[in-house]
Amino acid sequence: MDELRPPTLLALPSYLAGHVARIGRRELAGALETHGLRLPHFAVLAGLSDFGPLAQHALADRLGLNRSHLVGYLDELERRDLVGRERDPDDRRRQRVTLTEAGKSLTGELKEEASRSQDVFLGELSAKERETLISLLRRVVVADDRARPGAG
Asked: Which positions fall inside the HTH marR-type domain (predicted)?
């Protein structure tokens, strides 16, 4: 018997997606640990790299992070001089978060390491299969984002 898991579970996309996510997360977390970072730290750095400076609440919303948890991640990244916070010029009551030069440099390295970790994690799939998998998963995530209250 090639399969160790119950066929009933192996027929459920939600079970498979959850288990595959744990495998991928393990690979990525290992790569980040060498820098003393966790996945939420990388999410913050990647978000700022991709979107540019953002109001703290907008960053939390785009990353799907609890706003109070984000504060702790930002505190750690700021202590390490990877991000900076300043008053948002559009609304002085809010904080705007930016990447520092050190943050930009490290984020570039982390993106490369993340890509390598995904190559290890998805090594069983061809390049075309990976593209298909990413496309299908992205469709599900985007549809869920659109269905959320306030999306639009």
From this structure: 1-142
